[in-house]
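Memo to structure team: turn this sequence into structure tokens by end of day. - J.P.
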Amino acid sequence: MPSVVKDKMQIGHSAETIDHDMRTPSSNAPGLGEPAGQALPRPAPAGRVPAKNPDLAGSPLHVGIIMDGNGRWAAARGLPRIEGHRRGLEALRGTVRAAIEFNLAYLTVYSFSAENWSRPLEEVRDLMGLLKRFIRKDLIDLHKSGVRVKVIGHRANLQPDIRALLEEAETVTAANEGLNLVVAFNYGGRQEIAGAVREIARKFAQGEITETEITETLLSRHLDTAAIPDPDLIIRTSGEQRLSNFLLWQAAYSEFVFLPILWPDFDQAAFASALAEFAARERRFGGVSAPAAARTGS
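Reply from structure team:
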């Protein structure tokens, strides 16, 4: 049986990455919510912004999530790792629904990192199968709900059928104006930065840019996330407190919320709790706190 990637390169974020259950659109496929009939919220009419949850005033524009703990969730229940990934997929579906209801503009999920290719071949194949089923099963509903899908990460070493599915998800939803769902797949922050530097070095060597034009802004424009705002909040489940090569450049001023629950147990209440914690924080971006009178206008 051929490898799911050329030369079995690398993929995934940490040892407990979520699986993606994807297939090509089917008109009678159930939506992102299990069970069928629990579809995603529909986008608001053009020109009208959905009301935000009144308990989540000050919600972030962009949330990144490191979906960690699938394997441990399964192991604690005596189940195979693939079952943990399946349950993690259900948590992802609920998270996308919640992000729409919370009126977030961007949700970036760490679905498979550049390091995850080092996992057992059988597990990698299972994860690729879940990715295919997710696209085929849920793309229709994502599209109807106004979700725009963007995939970041290295694609050159992926098998053609995987690349085609990722491109299909982006193409079908490209004109949508609702939630921007950014899927970090075969992604690594260090690799992303190195690729941007190589491209900038090439342009400099060919005289396309000068030394004084090489700035933080220029580098940002050469990242996979060009035109996407940096994440305001990064959530990680499972109790681990590290980035695991996720959005290293973009997370410079992100707030972090580390939750002790494993990813399959992440639900709307946990999401709302993390957003509420974010809203309670004061972001200074290297500056100092404004006097209380200035902040309140009194």
